[in-house]
Task: structure prediction
Amino acid sequence: MSGQLPGAHSPDKRLPVTARSWAQARSGVRRRIRTASTFPLGSPPWPGTVELPPADKTLGVHYDSEWARSPFARRARTALQATVANPLLRALTSPSVRGLDRLAHFDEPAIFVANHSSHLDAPLILSVIPPRWRDELFVAGAADYFFDTHPKAVLSALALNAVPMERQRVSRTSAGRATQLLDDGWSMLIFPEGGRSPDGWGQPHRPGAAWLAVRSSVPVVPLYLEGTARILPKGSRRPKPGHVTVNFGAPILPPSDGDSRTFARTIEDAIAALADELAGDWYAARRRAAAGTTPPLSGPDATAWRRSWALGAARTGAGPKADSSRWPWNHRP
Amino acid sequence: MTRPGFVLEVDRSTPPILTWHGEGFRLENLPAGRSRVIYPPEPLESLRDPDAAIREALASPLGDSKPLRELLFPGMRLTIAFDDISLPLPPMRRPDNRQRVIEAVLDIAAAAGVDDVALICALALHRRMTESELRHAIGDRVYDSFAPIGRLLQHDAEDPEGLIHIGVTERGEDVEINRRAAESDLIVYVNINLVAMDGGHKSVATGLASYRSLRHHHNVKTMRHSKSFMDPEHSALHSSNWRMGRLLAASGVKIFQIETTLNNDAFPSQTAFLQKREWEWSARDRASYVASTRALSLLTPRAARSLFQSIKAPHAMTSVYAGEVEAVHAETTRMVHRQQLVEVQGQTDVAIFGLPHICPYNVNSIMNPILVMCMGLGYLFNLYRGRPIVREGGVAILSHPTPWAFHPVHHPSYIDFFEEVLSETTDPVVIEKNYEQRFATDEWYRHLYRTSHAYHGVHPFYMWYWGAHALEHLGRVIVVGGNRKAVRRLGFSPASTIADALEMASDVVGDEPTISHFHCPPIMIADVK
Result:
C-alpha cells in the first residue's frame, strides 16, 4: 500500500461522493425523520372501525381568530410582513404588479378573488396589495387544513389574519363570521377554487365568494397570479426562485338581482380575461372576451399528459419569464 | 365646499406672498394700499367614479352624435387620437385621463369587433414622446397592445405621404391633416382640457395638422387678435380653428370628440402650501416651506430641475363629455370656467407673474429663455377674459432664473433662434418676415423633428408670436432674478428683487403704481370687469 496516510479510511469505508450515493444518503435521512414522526414516536392513526370522539370545538371552523385582529396582533403582523415575509417573497418571486391603476379611484372594502396554485399565493398578494386594503384584510383559510391543529391555527391567524372557512359548503358559522367582518368594513381575500391546483390549471370556482359579495353588497376585485406554481407547486416543499406576475382587475359590483351563481361565473370569466391579458396583449384579450372566446383557466379537456403539455405551452407564452440574468448574477441594468 | 377665487387687497397686516421663481419660490412683501393678490378657486370635487362617468358619456353623447357603440362596426377603420405631453401640467398621476378614456373606447371597439385600430399622438409640431412618456399617458395595457405591432403612431407634420390636403376655408386657410386619421371611418379624439383654449376643433385642426395648415393661425396677426386665447369669442386663433374644423366636418371627416376636465389640484400633499392662501398656512405648511426652500438652496439647478420635473399632480377628473365637437366643447369650456374663473375689478399699472418650473413645452426638459418669455407673456398674461389684468402701457414683472440653457435634443432650433434671430431683433413682425421660412424649411431641423425628439424648426417662432399681444400691450417687461445677459437678449430689463423691479417700473407707470400679483399656479383665468 503506498500513499495512504495513517488513520485514513480505506476506499470502501469513505463517505459517499457520487451523486447517486449522496441522494441515497439524503433519502435515508428523510426516512429516519418520517419514522420519527409516525407511531409509536408520533401520534397513532385512528382505527376506522372505532367511532370518532366529538370534534374539538376550538379548532377547524370553530376556531376563534378574533384575537388576530386586536391592535397588538395587527402591529405584530405588520412588523412580521415588513421585516420577514415581504423581503423573503420579493427575493423568491421578484413580483411584477400590473393593473393597480384600475383601483385608483376605488377605496371601498372589497373581496379580492384570485386563482390558487401555491402556498405562496396569499402571502404574496398581501405583500403587493395597496395598504388601504392590506391593513384591514382577512384571508379565508381552509378550516380543515390551516385550522386543524392549534399551532397551525395560531400561525395562520397571526401571519395572514386568516379566518377559517369550510371548503365544501358555506356553513352558517363561517359565512356569518365573514359577513360580519365585511359589514364591519374589512376586506377579504378568498380563493374560490377551494384549494391549490393539482396540475397548474385552474379548478372550477365554488360559489362562496360570489355569495358573500352578493350577501354583503361588497365589490369583487379579481386577481390573476401567474408563476407561483412554478416556484412552489402543490406537493413541493422546496421553493425554486422565479418570477411572478400579479394582475389586478377592475372592481366588479355584485348584481342587484342577487344571482350569485351567475356572478360566480362573471368572476371566473374576469380572472380568465386577466390571465389572457398576460398571455398576449390587452386589446386582443378584450376582443376575445367580447367574443366569448377567452381561453378558460381550466385548460383543455384532455388526458393528463396533454393538459400538462398544453400548460407548458401556455407558460412559455405567458408574461415575462424568470430572468436568470438579473442582479446579483448580472449587475448590468 | 370649494371656495371660489379671491382677490386680496394688500394692507399692512398682509403676510408676504408666495411667488414662484422657476424651480423654487420666495415670499415677497407687496406695497400696502395699492396691491392686490389674485387667488385661484380651490379644486372642484372630482368625479366619484370616473370610469363609470366615461362609459356614460360614450353611451349618451352630446349634439347630433350617435352613441359610440353605434358608430363602430366590424371591418371599419378606427383612429384614436390623443393629446401629447404638453397636457396636463404638471403631468398627472397615473392613471392619466387619456388612459381611462382610451381603454373605455377600446373596450367598446373590442365588443364591436373592430380590428383596424390605430392610435395617433396628436403632436402638431411638438416633439415626439418617449416610450415612458407614452406609457404614462395611455397606460401599459394600451401601449403593449399597439406599439409592438406599429399601431401606436406619433403624428408627423412633415411626412408628405402621411398627410392629405382636405381643402381651403373661406378665408383661404389650407386644411391639411394626418392621412390615416382623415381616411378613417371614425376619428375618436381624446382631450385633456386644462385651459379653455384646449379642445374643440383645435384638437384635430391643430393637433393633426401640418406646417402648411398651422401657419394660417400660428402667426403674429392672429396672436395679436386673440384677446385672449382663453376667451373663445375674442380669439382669432379660436375662429381660425373653428373654420378649419367645420371644413373638415363638411368634407366628410367624422370626429367623435371626447373632452375631460381636471380640477386644479396641482401639487402633492407634502407641498400643499403651494396652493393655499398664505394667512391660512398651518405650522406644518410653514415647516414644509422652510424645509423645501432650504433643501432647494442646497441643490444644483440640474438636481432641482429633476426634482421638480418628477412632480406628478394629484389632478382629478371633474367632468367628461363626448359626442359632436362643438356641443362637447361648449360644456367643457363651462366646466373649465367653473374651476378657473376669478372675478377681478379693473386693471392695474403693474402685474407680477411668478413663473413656475414648467410650461407646455418643457416637460422633462429645460425652461429656456424663449420659453420663459412664452410662459410669462404668452400664457400667464393671456389668462384673462375681458381685459388683461395690467393696463395698456403698463409693466409686467416676471420672476424666473431665466438660465442661458437649452435642451439640445428637445430644442435645437431654439438655440439658433436665440443666437441668430434675437441678437438682431425682438420685433415679432420682423422676425416672422425675415426668418420664419428659413427655420421652417431647414432640412436638419426637419430631420430632428421627424426622427429624434426635437420640436419643429419653426416652433421657437411660434413661442415668440405667442407673446406678441403682450409685447404690443405692455410698456415694459422686467425679469426678476434672471440671467442678466439672457434677459437683455430677450429685450427685457433685469432686476435683482421685486422691490427693485417696482422701482424700475415707476419710470414707465409713475410713482405709486397699482399692482396685481397673479398667484398662479394653480391655473386660473382672471375675469376682468
Q: What stands out?
A: Strands of chain A lie at 96-98, 111-114, 137-142, 162-165, 187-190, 220-226, 245-248.
